[in-house]
Amino acid sequence: MPEPRKKTYQVVVDQIKEYFLNGELKPGDKLPTERELANLFNVSRTSVREALKKLEIKGLIEIRQGSGSFIKTSESSTLTVDLSSTIIHAEKKLIYEILELRRVLEVECAFLASRRATSEDLERIREALEMMDRSKNDVELGLQADVSFHINIVRASHNSIFLQLIQTLSEHMHNTIQATRRHRLANPERVQDTIDEHKEIYLAIASGDADLAKHLMEKHITQIRKELAESSLRYCEENSN
Fold this sequence. Notes:
CATH architecture of the largest domain: Up-down Bundle
CATH superfamily of the largest domain: GntR ligand-binding domain-like
Number of helices: 11
Organism: Metabacillus herbersteinensis
Strand content: under 5%
Pfam family, one: FCD
Protein name: FadR/GntR family transcriptional regulator
InterPro entries: GntR_C, TF_FadR/GntR_C, Tscrpt_reg_HTH_GntR, WH-like_DNA-bd_sf, WH_DNA-bd_sf
Mean pLDDT: 81
Keywords: DNA-binding, Transcription, Transcription regulation
């Protein structure tokens, strides 16, 4: 069976890696503009924008509002490598362990974001939320938007160590969110519920209600763990005979 065709933005991610991230540009160097990249790869600026967001989530570039996109500095890259070598070691319990870490980290970040988020931070979170709403029928784009939503809340905490840590774990975070969405979105009625949960968190942060934001994020991640555990239990029961 042939492999599923990659979406345009995924192709652009690979092209940017090949042309720039693995090329002659050094950490701290600026990438071409969205328009220039769109012309270079003969794709839409929307595809370029989605690709850049994906690379930012992976911690490979930094997008600075009004300035452009830059290759991550060597200091951040070194820290990422160090964290990766000491943290990312797990087998069967990996998803649950990542969720435990996310619960500690993201609950605090939601609290801090409510007090520290700038208008640009709130705009990034809102854009991710709107993308989730637009991509109800696009599994990959919806997943990307979900991951972006959570990482941008961490970014809005304005704690650089928290951000570098979550970027280090982005692939595992991606996997936990993917597993949750696969379970939840199998029921069409849960699609809007999932979006509404994220919207409530955003509104609490935007209104500066730190205690509510903290409570809602903890409730959200606790519910994720509960649903995954229930899903695993049902699978074991169905396959026990």
